[in-house]
Design a protein that fits this description.
The protein is α/β, with parallel strands linked by helices. Helix content is 42%, strand content 12%. It is globular and about 50 Å long. One of its GO terms (biological process) is DNA damage response.
Length: 312
């Protein structure tokens, strides 16, 4: 019973019904890796931004807002990126890129030493977008280690557990598709050699705001302090980052974190709850007049960055 997941069927369905999108994503990844040695820094940056946005919009595939109904990704995730650009309300992607580039310093072996942490949200297609993004970061030399953080128990319908993480990699390995299978094999290798690792902590399923972590989960906070960049996926993580308060929309993201800055961090979130900070004056009012449900319908997104090393 300790491994029973009442939400497993829905998460499995989300993965299986997103096969075409996953094939497209893995094909793009493998083509990138094949040509990576010949890519300029500008081309590498463009590929980074594209996969960052795929991971961002992968967060729309959330069973908790679809009442468990099909919310999978049917088409290529790249086709809609140009049209979705205007729905990104805050885009700090360039600061995220600059942070990764600055963290690349080489050791005596010449290997990149940057560590990236990804606090996961949903299983299914979104998890695949996160794995592809992580693969790119390692293959491009932007990170040497990736630490994935998931839930220790089944949580909020589609949240990733260790079983989901391992199952997704095994299913991708076993796929009857050349590039899907190749991707899965590589991910398994990353796990085996320690390049990737999966971690869970009870704090992620407790009601605490993240600003309480340094006191209530000092071990986890200390672990995150060793990261060069932390990605927080999804709406619930955003709500815990900001304390789920009814902030004025123009309050700076740094201020809403209330001291939670273990390392440079980035929230990748599609909006599904009525909390949002870091907007420009008048931006929220304009959105409300055009789309009264803009904060909850999952149509809009943010890429918001904060760093303890940046002047406030």
């Amino acid at each position: 019973m300790d491994k029973f997941d009442v939400f497993k069927e829905g998460k499995t369905q989300s993965y299986l019904e997103s096969q075409q999108a996953i094939k497209s994503l893995c094909t793009y990844l493998q083509e990138l890796i094949t040509n990576m040695e010949n890519m300029t820094e500008i081309q590498l940056r463009d590929s980074f931004l594209k996969l960052l946005q795929v991971s961002l919009w992968g967060n729309k595939c959330d069973l908790s807002i679809s009442a468990g109904q099909d919310n999978s990704q049917k088409s290529s995730p790249f086709d809609s990126l140009p049209d979705l650009q205007r729905f990104i309300l805050v885009d700090d992607s360039n600061m995220v890129w600059s942070t990764l580039v600055a963290a690349q310093g080489s050791g005596s072996s010449g290997m990149k030493h940057a560590r990236v942490d990804i606090v996961l949200d949903n299983a299914g297609f979104e998890l695949v977008t996160d794995l592809v993004f992580a693969d790119f970061l390692v293959s491009a030399g932007l990170a040497k280690h990736i630490r994935f953080h998931g839930k220790s128990i089944p949580w909020f319908v589609s949240d990733v557990t260790k079983q989901d993480f391992e199952w997704t990699i095994m299913q991708t390995m076993a796929a009857n598709h050349k590039w899907m299978s190749a991707s899965g094999v590589q991910w398994k290798h990353f796990i085996k050699d320690g390049t990737w690792s999966y971690h869970d902590h009870s704090f992620w399923t407790l009601p605490h705001e993240f600003c309480d972590m340094a006191v209530d989960a000092a071990d986890l906070y200390s672990t995150l302090q060793g990261s060069d960049l932390i990605f927080f996926k999804g709406d619930l993580n955003y709500r815990k980052l900001t304390g789920d308060r009814k902030w004025e929309h123009t309050v700076p993201f740094d201020q809403a974190l209330r001291g939670f800055q273990p390392a440079p961090l980035c929230s990748l979130r599609t909006l599904k709850a009525d909390v949002q900070v870091g907007l420009q004056p008048g931006q929220a009012e304009k959105l409300s007049s055009q789309d009264p449900d803009w904060m909850t319908n999952g149509k809009y997104a943010v890429v918001q960055f904060s760093s303890p090393h940046r002047e406030q």
